[in-house]
Amino acid sequence: MFFWSIVLILIGIYSSYIFGKSRIKKLVYSTNLKPKSQYNYHAQYVLSWCLLPALIVYFSWAVFEEQIIQNLILDSFEYVEGAAYNDGLLLAEIRNVANNTDFSEGKSQEIINAASQYKSLKLTSEISFYISIIIIMILGSLYAVRKINIQFNAQDTIEKYIKYILIFCSSIAVLTTIGIIFSLIFESFRFFSQVSIFEFLFSTEWYPFIPIREGQAAAEGSFGAVPIFAGTFLIMIVAMCVAAPIGLLTAIYLSEYASQKVRKTVKPLLEILAGIPTIVYGFFAFVTVAPFVKSFGQSIGIDASPTSALAAGLVMGVMIIPFISSLSDDVINSVPQSLREGSLGIGANKAETIKKVILPAALPGIVGAFLLAISRAIGETMIVVVAAGTAANLTANPFENVTTVTVQIVVALIGDQEFDNPRTLSAFALGLVLFVITLSLNVLALRIVKKYRERYE
Amino acid sequence: MVENNNTKISAKDVDVFYSEKQALNKISMDIKEKEVTALIGPSGCGKSTFLRCINRMNDLIEICKVTGSIKVDNEEIISSSTDVVSLRSKIGMVFQKPNPFPKSIFDNVAYGPSIHGLADTKSDLENIVITSLKKAGLYNEVKDRLNEPGTSLSGGQQQRLCIARAIAVNPEIILMDEPCSALDPIATAIIEELIDELRLNYTIIIVTHSMQQAARVSQKTCFFHLGELIESGETNKIFTNPDNTKTQDYITGRFG
Predict the structure, then answer these.
(1) Angle at A261 between CA A258 and CA A267, to 5 degrees
(2) How far is B248 from chain A (nearest CA, A)?
(3) Measured between beta carbons, which residues in chain B are less than 8 angstroms from residue A342?
(4) Residue A52's domain spans which residues?
(5) From the list B88, B92, B99, which residue is nearest A339 (CB)?
(6) How many angstroms away from the CA of B115 is the closest CA of chain A?
(7) Do B95 and A342 touch (CB under 8 A)?
(8) Domain check: are A234 and A147 in the same one?
(9) Which of A31, A207, A256, A337 could connect to A222 by a Cys-Cys bridge, CB 3.0–4.6 Å?
(10) Cβ–Cβ under 8 Å, residues B166 and B94
């Protein structure tokens, strides 16, 4: 069906275009007037009236066809008394028999009947699909052709259609975002109807795995998100301790000391770091860094666990270095040259100029870069899953196992889960809080960066 | 006008190249102490480039290469052994666009003295700042708001703040690169008056596009054209009776 409908639509497009063009040409010839729009726009106008309805028909068939056929089959199915039926399994069986892909012996009569009914319905649907798509294309073209005349401004109309198409495309992203936010909010509501929001936000115990015994409500003492957020925070701090100084100093080197040539080579190289899949970092953290951290901990007399906040944080820090260095480099570069000259002209050396003039001037932008890096670090999952463990410890010791929001979401959703128990639903509540945090960090960062830009423009 | 014959800056055969392109060709001139010397000429003639050679500001441009000799107080400055930092503390610079640092008015002026360690105590520093602001004719306008950001001042005030910032480190020479081109006529008049006062204590070199300004503020004028020094001498003479026909054409507005 897919192939032939594409062929049909292509034929429709071609003939409607020709149809529209010949129509306007004929009009021009018979009246001997100059048309308001060029021939092509009239042709495109007819074409869009042919194509858009056809697409609507095509997609509505794609969406509804199977559903309608299934309902018809189930409605007329001859249920045998006493047998247990599952609609999904039954339909799958009927479909298999109809497509001759079910090779088991001894099908009952009612299944065979239903299968032949399914086949005939499919055929009817296919035929009516082709007929309706042809009719709709012809009707659309005829309608459009009737509107064509010398005075008709086809160019403006096409312009308008293009605008609608663009609006439609851009609204998809926006609507998806809104949809995600709403599903987060609704599922979180379901979670908070089972677990008190105060417990979630302020309690320090997180044991979602303990089976809830009879008589013990889910709300009693197992969903305190504090250790999870503390773990996230701890890893973020470790990561920023690595990334902030290294990234900032790299940026200063690149923008103030490096020659153009070095800068042009090093900056893209650094940005490659940002392109490494995070699971590879996780790998690296687990296989190389975590054992090193453990033996280092032992050498200074601290008992480190094989996976630790420190290992994950260090590697995450490396991961976000390019964010900080690249963004800060841009910000430092956009500090006007006149400030550098002003400072150097007084007899300040390079280091004094950077420390006392350039960095203060670039500070808001640098803070913005840091905030963006932090929100990236908070949202990061794979490194932490692999290298920091899943135990929700409330600790400030970076040598211990901790867990983060994203990891707990993964844990809550792994495997076969029913979406009615608080353990699974906790993922949505955690996601919502995470979303609010990173969103506000991003908004804050963007505002700071914007304010900074305005100052020098 | 008291004539003096102390040469402050002496340039000999200065060539400047931007990559392959020659921007200045064999410039030689002497600049006298405590006088205002104006560099005039059409855009792209190399007058700013020459100005920026004197405090080695061209070092900031990677592709720029300066050869020849410039002596300030008989010391060669176009050499890799020159102490650029002490040279620049001796030569203040005021730029085309006012460029106060994003700091308070006080800190803008205190910046130079504090990095050069000119003040031992806080009150010393305050004295330097206040004296410099007074010399730049800005003190009365800003004395109540020394802690406000320098960028909050008007354009003309910002430029005077930059002059105060430059003279706070006790320079002997002040370079001005079109200091009034971003200012309105009233602010320009104030700065010109200030230049006239500063002449008593400083050697001033000013690049300007405005011939009236050159005539008003300078004692000596140098006319540049296409990277060459066409004519230099007493401002009066240049503007009334130039030797070179190109100079004549330029000051009468026939080209440029």
Answers:
(1) 70
(2) 34
(3) 93, 95, 99-101, 162, 165
(4) 2-152
(5) B99
(6) 7
(7) yes
(8) no
(9) A207
(10) yes
SS3 of residue A59 by DSSP: helix
Same domain? A148 vs A235: no
Interval B18-54: pLDDT, tens: 988 999 999 999 999 999 999 998 888 889 999 999 9
Provide CB contacts within 8 A for A177, sequence distance 6+.
none
Residues B229 and B234: their CA atoms lie apart, in Å, by 15
Pair of tokens at residue A451:
């304010």
Query: Where is A36: in which H helix or E strand?
Result: none
A358 neighbors A331 (Cβ within 8 angstroms)? no
**Closest Cβ–Cβ partner in B85, B99, B162 for A349:** B85
Pick the residue from chain A with its C-alpha nearest to B98: A338
Q: What is the pLDDT of residue A217?
A: 47
3-state secondary structure of A10: helix
In what order do the strands lie in the sheet containing B75-76?
Answer: B21-32, B7-18, B64-72, B75-76
Q: Tell me the pLDDT tens digit for each residue of A96-106.
A: 888 877 767 66
Determine contact: A259 vs chain B, CB below 8 A.
Answer: yes
More confident residue, A104 or A19: A19
- Domain termination site, one of A100, A117, A152: A152
CB-CB: which of B60, B97, B111 is closest to A346? B111
ipTM: 0.87
CA distance B256 to chain A (A): 26
Query: Considering only CB atoms, which chain A residues are within 8 Å of B169?
Result: 346-347
Q: Where does residue B46 fall: left (phi above 0), alpha (psi -120 to 50 degrees), or beta otherwise?
A: left
CB B109 within 8 A of CB B168: yes
Contact B111 A343 (CB under 8 A): yes
Phi and psi, residue A327, nearest 5°: -65, -45
Measure Cα distances from A267 to A247, A327, A335, A385, B188 in Å. Answer: 12, 11, 18, 30, 44
3-state secondary structure of B16: strand
Burial class of residue B184 in the structure, from the number of CB atoms within 10 Å of its CB (0-12 exposed, 13-18 middle, 19+ buried): exposed
CA distance B89 to chain A (A): 5
- Tell me the CB-side half-sphere exposure of residue A17, using CA atoms within 13 A: 9
Residue B11's DSSP bridge partners are B29, B70
This prediction has a pTM of 0.73
B103 touches chain A (CB under 8 A): yes
Assign B229 to helix, strand or coil: strand
Query: How do residues A311-350 score in pLDDT, each as one tens digit?
Result: 889 999 999 999 899 989 988 998 888 899 999 998 888 9
**Residue A170 domain-assigned (yes or no):** no
Q: What DSSP letter does each residue of A332-401 carry, written as one string?
A: HHTS-HHHHHHHHHHT--HHHHIIIIIHHHHHHHHHHHHHHHHHHHHH--HHHHHHT-S-------TTS-
Report the side by side order of strands in the sheet with B203-207. Answer: B91-94, B173-177, B203-207, B36-40, B220-225, B228-234
- The answer as to whether A208 is a domain residue is no
Class of domain B7-97+171-251 (CATH, top level): alpha beta
Contact yes or no for A20/A45 (Cβ under 8 A): yes
Instruction: Give me the residue spans of the domains in chain B.
Output: 7-97+171-251
- Assigned domain for A200 exists: no
* Count of structural domains, chain A: 2
Asked whether the beta carbons of residue B165 and residue A346 sit closer than 8 angstroms, the reply is: yes
Beta carbons of A346 and B97 less than 8 Å apart: no
In the numeric block, which tokens belong to residue A8?
């049909």
